[in-house]
Write a structure and sequence with these properties.
alpha/beta, two-stranded antiparallel ribbon, 38% helix, 2 domains
Length: 291
């Protein structure tokens, strides 16, 4: 197999790099090699996915060949593609990411969909987002509901800076941010909607998750360092104080038995209605509570 590193001064075309990169990742055990190489090449060449093959004979300059080679070296160390390129897409918006924030997942788009739908009868709703990370959820809701007033909180200063930059880049004007430790402090105000994708992986499960997640993504956004339910208990205690009359709370939940455990926390308290909603894969991943 041709070595991109050892032949860095030869002439490379987009298709050459695509084939070499795919084979290189496959030989290193990456099952989704073609998708990952296409993602990296599109970012490298500033192409849309649909334009990649139309430009397959395009020559690639040496600086870009060197950059791509470095990206592959990072990828075989299991660094997520999104951290390599520094960006991803979520709900139609481009989101900058770094290891200080969780990479937005497609499953979380269902959380956003349910949240937006819960606001459809309200004018100028007030929304509280707990644990904003990259700001992707607030940006998606703020873009869909420009009349909404959204407060997004996070304990991480680094995450808040990234979220603020993403809000500016996506030209969202109805989101504000505050640094706050939700487990110890109570946000001010009353809200029509509380939304969150909280840390829900238990400390026991952290050793079993994929290495590209456990080694690179921020543990503070993944686990509560307990049983994966601490944030849900906190939401259960504090929800009525934060909610307006007929307010709602939309929370993402984990896989396996986690959805039922989270459901039972709220079901044992005095809430009007509690629903578990499947995501696009049919997994119960969204908990909707009418407060």
């Amino acid at each position: 197999m041709i070595s991109l590193k050892n032949n860095i001064n030869q002439e490379w075309k987009v298709l050459d790099i695509m084939h070499w990169g795919e084979n290189y990742l496959l030989s290193n055990g990456f099952k989704e090699a073609r998708d990952e190489i296409e993602w990296l090449l599109c970012d490298l060449m500033h192409y849309k996915r649909s334009d990649l093959y139309l430009n397959s004979e395009q020559k690639v300059n040496q600086n870009k060949v060197s950059c791509f080679n470095e990206w592959l070296n990072q990828r075989i160390k299991n660094k997520p593609v999104q951290y390599i390129t520094g960006r991803t897409e979520f709900y139609g918006n481009e989101i900058s990411v770094s290891p200080e924030v969780l990479i937005p997942r497609m499953e979380t788009e269902k959380l956003v969909e349910v949240a937006i739908d819960s606001l459809k009868t309200l004018s100028r709703p007030k929304v509280l987002e707990v644990g904003t990370g990259s700001g992707c959820i607030a940006i998606a809701i703020g873009s869909a509901r420009k009349d909404a007033k959204i407060l997004s909180i996070d304990i991480s200063t680094s995450a808040l800076e990234i979220a603020k930059n993403n809000v500016r880049a996506n030209k969202i004007s109805n989101v504000t941010f505050s640094k706050l430790d939700f487990m110890k402090e109570t946000p001010k105000g009353e809200y029509d909607l509380i939304v969150s994708n909280p840390p829900y992986i238990s400390k026991y499960e952290m050793n079993t998750i994929m290495s590209d997640v456990s080694h690179y993504e921020p543990h503070i956004a993944l686990t509560d360092n307990e049983d994966g339910l601490e944030f849900y208990r906190r939401f259960c205690v504090i929800a009525k104080k934060l909610s307006k009359k007929d307010g709602k709370m939309i929370l993402e939940v984990g896989l396996g038995s986690h959805p039922i455990k989270a459901f039972n926390i709220f079901n044992s308290s005095d809430f009007n209605k509690i629903d578990l909603i499947p995501d696009y894969n049919g997994d119960l991943r969204v908990l909707k509570i009418e407060i």
